[in-house]
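Hello,

Following up on my earlier ticket. Below are the two sequence lines again, exactly as submitted.
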Amino acid sequence: MSSLLIATPVLVPLFTAALTVALARRPRRQRAASAAGALLLLLCCAALLHDAIGGAVTTARFGEWAAPFAIVFRIDRAAALMLTVNAVLALAVLAYPGRGGALATPFGPPLAHGLLAGAGGAYATADLFNLYVWFEIMLIAALGLIVAGRKPAQLEAGLKYLVLNLFGTVVLLAAVAGLYGLTGQLNYEALARALAGRGKDPLALLLGALLLLALLIKAGAFPFLFWLPAAYPVLPAPVQALFTALSTKVGAYALLRVLHDVFPAGAPAYSEALGWIAAATMVAGVMGAVYHYDLRRILAFHSVSQMGYILLAAALGGVAGIAAALFFSIHHILVKANLYLIAGMIARRGGHHDLRRIGALAHSDRALAILFALSAAALVGIPPLSGFWAKLLVLREGFGQERYLWTALALCTGALTLLSMAKIWIEAFWKPHPAAPAVQAAYPPGAWAACGLLSLLALAMGLMPGPLIDFLYAAAGTMAAPPAGGAP
Amino acid sequence: MIEWALAACVALVAAAGLYLASSRDLVAMIVGLALLGSAVNLFVFAAGRLGQAVPPIVEAGAAGAAVANPVPQALVLTAIVIGFAFACFGIALALALAAYDHRADADALEQAEPPPRPDGDPGELP
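Thanks for your patience. The regenerated structure is below:
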C-alpha cells in the first residue's frame, strides 16, 4: 500500500494524461478530468506529507530487487512538501482560464500532466539514472507546451529551449555514466557511501562538477540562463506559471540533493564556485529585468535572478542553507506563479504586455492593483511578507559564514528588484493611458480564484513563517545527514 | 587496446557533434546534438567495462564465470530511445522554422527575442 502511495506523484499525473488524451475531442470533459486528476494528485501528496511530517522517510524499491540494484523512490519531509506545493500550484493553474493559450488546446492538459509526472518523479526518485529519465520527460512535455500554440515565435522559443536543455541532459547523462563507472552505483545512498572518502579525488570531483553543471543548466544559472528569457515571454500566462514551479525549481532541488545527499564529501570544494555563479545569476537576471519593458520579459528575468538566491543558499550549505533554499523555492513558486497569472490579467485589461502601451489601471481595476501590489511587495521582500523571511534566511546565513560580498550583492539585487517592480507599478497602474484604451475584456472568475488562492497562501506564509521554517529545518536535518546504515 | 579505440571513438564523435552543434544552420545544430548524444551513449556503454564475458544470463544457483554487466546495457538502450526521440522532434522543429522564413539560420531567430530599437530601448514583443 505504501509503495502504491509513494508512486502516486508519478502514477496519478500519468494516468490523468492518458485519460485526457482519450477525451481530446470533448473539451469540457477533458477539462473536468484534468482538474479531477490535479485534485487527486493534491490529496495523494497531502497524504504523503502527512506521513512525512513526523520525520518518517517512505521508501519503495520497485521490482523487489535487493537494496542497491532496485530503482528506489524515497520521500522525506522536503520532497513531500515540494510535491504538495507543486500540486497546489497545478490546481491553481488549471483553474486559470487559458483562452487561446496552450492549455486551451487539446494538447494542453495531457502535456501539463506529463510535466507534473516528470517533476513528481524527479522529486521522488533516489536513483541518478532515473533522475535523468524524469528530466527528459519534463523536457519533452515542456517543449510540447511551448510549441502547442504554433506561432513562429513559439517555435523559435521551443528550439532555443530544446538546444540548451538537450545539451544539459547530454551532460547529465555523461556525468551519471561517469559516476557509475567510478563507483558501480546509481542509488543516492549507495553513491553517498561509495563517494564518502573521495572528497579530494580529482576524478570524483570532476564528475561531480559535470553533474552540477548539468543541473545548473536546468536551473537557469548564470552563463546558462539564456533559454529561460527566450522561452518564457512567448508563452501564455498559465504555462509560464506552471513552468516557474516545474522547470528551474526541480533543477535547484536536484542540485541540493546531489550536493548534500549524494556527494556531501565534495560539497566544500564546490561551494566557492557555486556561490560566485549564484551571485552572477542574481545580478545578471535583475539587470535584464531593469532594462526591459515587456511584462513577460521582466518577470522571466526576475525568475533567473531569484534562482540566484536559491543557489546562493545551496552554496552556503549546512542545515540553515538547505532550509533557506527550500523556503525560498516555495515562496518563489507561489509568488512568482501568481505574478505571471496577474501579468496575464493586466495584459487582458490593458490590451498589451508592453508597459509603454498600457496605463491607468489603478483607477479602473482596484482589486487587480491590490493583488499585484501584494505579490510584488512579497517578491521584493517587504516585511512581513514571505519574500522578507526568504531573503532574511539567506542573508543571515551569508553573514553567519562571513560571505560579505555575496550578501552585499544579494542586497543590491533586492534594491534593483524593488526598482523594476516599481517600474511596473508606475507604468501600468499610475501613469495615464498613452492612447484611448480599447474595449477591455473582463476576466472570468477562474482567474480570480487562482490568483486569490496563491495570494492567500503566500500571505499565510509571510504572516506565520514559524511553523514552516521549523519544519524546513527538520527537513534539512534529514537531508544533510542521510541514514548511514543499510537501506531499509 | 580496445579501450583506447573506444575512447578515441567517443572523442571523435563528441568533437564532430560539438562542431556541428555550434553551427548556425539549425538542422546541423540538432544533428550535432544528436551526435554528441551518441558519443555519450558510447561512454555509458563503456562505463560497464569492456572485455570478453558471457551474456549475463545465469542459471539459478550457478555461481558465476565472468558475466557482462547488464546495467549499462539497459541504461544505454533507454538513452538511445530518448535521444532518438529528441533528435526527431528537434529536426521537425528546425524544419518548421525553416518553412516559416525560408532560412534555417540561427542568426535570423528574432521573433521570440526582438532586438533593441535603434535608440537603445528594448524591442517590442507581439
